[in-house]
Amino acid sequence: MKVRLLAIGRDRSGLFAPAVDEYLGRLARTLKVELVELPEAKKQAGTPRAKEEEGATVLGRLKPGERLVALDERGDQPTSLELARRLARWQERGQDVALVIGGADGLSAEVLERAQERLSLSRLTLPHRLARLVLVEQLYRAVTILRGEPYHKD
Length: 154
Fold this sequence. Notes:
The protein is α/β, with parallel strands linked by helices. Helices cover about 45% and strands about 20% of the residues.
C-alpha cells in the first residue's frame, strides 16, 4: 500500500514545509508515502475556472485503482483513533490511497464526485498549506497508534 498526498500549490512562506518534511520522514520508516505538489491555476485564480483547472490536474495524476480521499470541509471528521482504523482498512485491502488537498479555492465538483471518501480535518477553516501539515501529522499519529507506540496519548 502506498499513500500519496496530492496537494495544490507550494509553501512559499517556508513556515510549514520543514514540519511537513519532518513528518514525511518519520512516516517513510513504516509507510510508503509521497507528497506530490501540483501547480496552482494562477491565471484563473479566484474564479470558478481555477477549481476546474486544478481539479483536472488532480484527476489526471490519479493512478489506476487508487482510492481517492478528498479533504473537504463537509467530509467526515474522524478522531485520530478512527483515522488509524481507516488507515488499517486501507492497508488490509492493499489499496493505494490518494489524499487530495485543494488549493485556496477548494476542490472541484468533479474531484468531489470522484472521491470514494471525504475527510475534514476540523470544523475550522484551515489554510490549505496548514491542512497539509495537520494531515501528515495525523497520518503519523495513526501509524503510531497502529504500531502501539507511545506518541498518541488517550
